[in-house]
Amino acid sequence: MASSSIFDILATQSALVEEASEALPFQFTQCTYALGPIRQAVYLCTTCAVPRGICSACSVACHTDHEQIELFPKRNFRCDCPTRGLSHSCTLHTVLEVENAENTYGQNFKGLFCRCSRTYDAQTERETMIQCVACEDWFHESCLNLRDRPSSRDPTPQPAAEAIQEVDDDAASDASSSGLPPPLISGTSYDALVCRDCVKGIPTLKRYAGTPGALMVIRDSASDPWRVVGEEVLAETLRDVEVTDGDAHAATAGTKRPRSGSLDEVVQAKRPKEDTVQSETTKTSSLCLAPAPNDIVRDIVSSLDDSVHSPRGAGDVFLTEGWRERWCRCSQCLPSLESHPYLLEAEETHEPPEDPDSGLSLEELGMRALQRLPRDRAIDGIRAFNEMRDELMNHLRPFAQEGKEVTEADIRGFFEAKMAATK
Ligand SMILES: [Zn+2]
Ligand SMILES: [Zn+2]
Ligand SMILES: [Zn+2]
Ligand SMILES: [Zn+2]
Ligand SMILES: [Zn+2]
Ligand SMILES: [Zn+2]
């Protein structure tokens, strides 16, 4: 490889800037506290070591050099960074606020996940973890009986950084655990998980568990292998749609992108026009259209209320694409759905505003930052920028002299060493 010219270095640099702006396309200048309780990505600061959650802007701006765990979206959550709940002061929302009495702090805020209450380590976790759409905790595939527990949680050859996935997200639904055989239900064949404890508290889910489109993992006895019930959704749903066309059973259009040839499209074609659908959904009927479950499922569901769980299944429900549209909305089924609005309508998750500077080159960003500074500090800034550029060039000069290729890692190494030195 020929020696790196300044052009190569600039090309590498612009690739790095591009990479950085893709990773952080958002502006982290505003704490979400003022927005009140919303569904948003929440971070746990393990350095601050209190079971409180902070918004993504505060995680970047206020707890920059602290150890953090991303807890992913939590609903009805208000940032704790500017409150008395956290002793570390917020740099974005500088008014000290009272503690958020309405936030709920489950075990995730102690760094524990799943019904097995384990800690999560992205480096060693081999299993995909799946978020319950109701309680928003995360579950191991093995704890959901989707696979045997992997013999070891040691690091695998592939990085397991993708191991935590939200099923709600289309892009992430292609679940695969590193180095493990596929799970009993693949991530692409369902859209949402409702964990056992949540199913237990929602009568309509108990009614639907194990019926078409509400998959359950069951077995005939403790010595039999696990199998899946509720997969026969296509035929069943189409029949339902034909029977109840234009009736109270029809629902609002899905918010998910339909996959080609998927159930969504077929159902879409059979559905009455949007405007009639809207008015029909609010109407309740006394005729219940919820399908009847089989005996094993009935056994599992009735055991949910006991302290001893059925050996025939845990009671978790995996809802397939289009699930929000399939509920019976009779006077019996609707109330328990209405008290959990996310079961009827997809929720919005707050995202920080996009960064208008993202995608600009390092020079452009530097110039913009300098323009915003008072003049004397701007001059200091230029001096610091020039010094850093000179240092980087000194760092890279030996590569050019020896004809060695400059890699991203070399440039990263420079910045990392620089960061470490300023700490
Ligand atoms: Zn915040
Ligand atoms: Zn912190
Ligand atoms: Zn903050
Ligand atoms: Zn678990
Ligand atoms: Zn749950
Ligand atoms: Zn019903």
Task: Provide structural commentary.
The chain is α+β, with helices and mostly antiparallel strands and 423 residues long. The protein has three domains: 6-25 and 362-411, no CATH class; 32-166, no CATH class; 192-343, no CATH class. Helices cover 31% and strands 11% of the residues. It has helices spanning 6-23, 56-61, 196-200, 203-208, 233-244, 263-270, 274-281, 295-303, 334-338, 362-372, 375-402, 408-422, and strands spanning 38-45, 53-54, 68-77, 112-113, 118-119, 129-131, 138-140, 164-165, 192-194, 214-218, 227-229, 317-319. Strand 6 (129-131) and strand 7 (138-140) form a beta hairpin. The longest helix is centred in the last third of the chain and has 28 residues, at 375-402. The protein is globular, with a radius of gyration of 26 Å. One zinc ion is lined by residues 288-290, 328, 330, 332-333. One zinc ion binds at residues 31-33, 54-55, 57-58, 79, 81.
Notable features of this structure?
UBR-type domain-containing protein, alpha+beta, 11% strand, 31% helix, 4-stranded antiparallel β-sheet, 3 domains, globular, 3-stranded antiparallel β-sheet, binds zinc ion, 423 residues, metal-binding, ubiquitin protein ligase activity, 12 helices
Secondary-structure topology with pairs:
Layout: H1 6-23, E1 38-45, E2 53-54, H2 56-61, E3 68-77, E4 112-113, E5 118-119, E6 129-131, E7 138-140, E8 164-165, E9 192-194, H3 196-200, H4 203-208, E10 214-218, E11 227-229, H5 233-244, H6 263-270, H7 274-281, H8 295-303, E12 317-319, H9 334-338, H10 362-372, H11 375-402, H12 408-422
Parallel strand pairs: 6-8
Antiparallel strand pairs: 1-2, 1-3, 4-5, 6-7, 9-12, 10-11, 10-12
One zinc ion binds next to loops.
Zinc finger (UBR-type): 29-95
Region (Disordered): 245-285
Keywords: Metal-binding, Zinc, Zinc-finger
